[in-house]
Design a protein that fits this description.
mainly alpha; elongated; three-stranded mixed beta sheet; about 10% strand; disordered C terminus; Alpha-Beta Plaits
Length: about 350
């Protein structure tokens, strides 16, 4: 288990312990108050705990080294884990709505609401701090499982805040002699819907990652890095592809080099690109560079001294995320390629 994977795994242990502790505290608050809204919060915490242990196993499996059956490693399990967590969030939202409707039809007695509010508020604060830390760490280490766990905790926090505000209104109304028990269940229904939408968002993001949807932010960083280290021998780069698997990253690209460059020199250029990317994103990155020799059409985009030049230099090709992701070699705008299949009509 490498250093980054171990760090993620250890942090997920903290999430699991915190989640279990807060779940117990919230159920105590429910039994003290009888509030349906607080039960809503406690039920979501069950999902948090189960999801935390699912994420823990996913991070453990993700950290296992590549083997014959999984040459790119086991990082994709984190996407599966995130889908499971999102599904559990969605189910929790549905259960909350169901229980709240039953409570709305047959409302129970609410008591000791002031103590319950303090307990839920303290739990929400802890959830938020741990959740934000998990998201930051997950994004830094490119761990979908850790990001999903963090979003899970934050969604729990946001629902807790809404519940606290709503129950504060209930508390004031009851203190003034009004019957506001129905509002308790209404608040729970609203936040059950919000929690459900959070689950859908997590599932969608996880499916996108599983299908290797382009990470625009990551592509922007790769583009900036290549432009920063660019020099005259790197005439053009195209067909850049990024694949994320857990905290690992695979970068593939095609590089146009001068046609008179020796194989050993070509290897050094490829090594420079790999070194720059690993310096930025860590040693867990795999880089594949396919080098190809330039043609006469690239003379106008190359300003190096060359005996093979057949056209004056005009400008460098501009590298943007869109141009780098182009699957085809960047042909000059005045170049017209005639389809040879037209000759078949003769």
């Amino acid at each position: 288990m490498d250093e980054v994977a171990k760090s993620n795994f250890d942090f997920q242990k903290i999430i699991a312990v915190v989640g279990f502790s807060l779940m117990a505290i919230k159920f105590i608050a429910f039994y003290m108050t009888g509030s349906m809204a607080i039960l809503t919060d406690a039920l979501e915490s069950i999902v948090n705990v189960v999801a935390a242990f699912v994420g823990l196993y996913a991070l453990y499996l993700s950290a296992q080294p590549a083997d014959k059956s999984h040459p790119f490693g086991h990082g994709k399990i984190e996407n599966i884990s995130a889908i499971i967590e999102g599904s559990m969030i969605l189910v929790a939202g549905g259960l909350i709505i169901y229980e709240s409707i039953l409570s709305f039809i047959n409302p129970g007695e609410i008591k000791q609401l002031d103590i319950g509010l303090v307990i839920v508020a303290a739990a929400a604060l802890v959830n938020f701090l741990v959740g934000r830390a998990a998201i930051r760490k997950g994004k830094k280490t490119r761990s979908p499982a850790l990001v999903a766990s963090g979003k899970h905790l934050c969604s729990d926090t946001y629902s807790s805040i809404g519940i606290i505000l709503g129950l504060a209104v209930v508390y004031v109304a009851m203190a003034l002699g009004y019957d506001a028990v129905w509002l308790d269940s209404s608040i729970a229904i609203v936040f059950g819907v919000i929690i459900g939408f959070t689950g859908i968002h997590v599932i969608k993001q996880s499916i996108d990652d599983s299908m290797d949807k382009n990470d625009e932010e990551l592509m922007e960083q790769i583009t900036a890095l290549l432009n920063e280290y660019r020099h005259d021998d790197w005439i053009d780069i195209y067909k850049v592809r990024l694949i994320k698997y857990g905290h690992g990253l695979f970068v593939d690209m095609h590089l146009i080099l001068p046609r008179d460059m020796a194989v050993s020199e070509s290897y050094e250029e490829e090594a420079q690109i790999e070194e720059a990317i690993k310096w930025k994103f860590g040693e867990e990155v795999e880089v594949s560079v396919t080098a190809a020799p330039c043609t006469d059409y690239f003379c106008r985009y190359c300003d190096r001294n060359c005996f093979n030049r057949c056209e004056d230099y005009e400008k460098h090709l501009k590298w943007t995320p869109d141009s780098l992701m182009n699957p085809y070699m960047h042909n000059p705008p005045r170049l017209v390629i005639i389809d040879g299949s037209l000759n078949n009509d003769r």
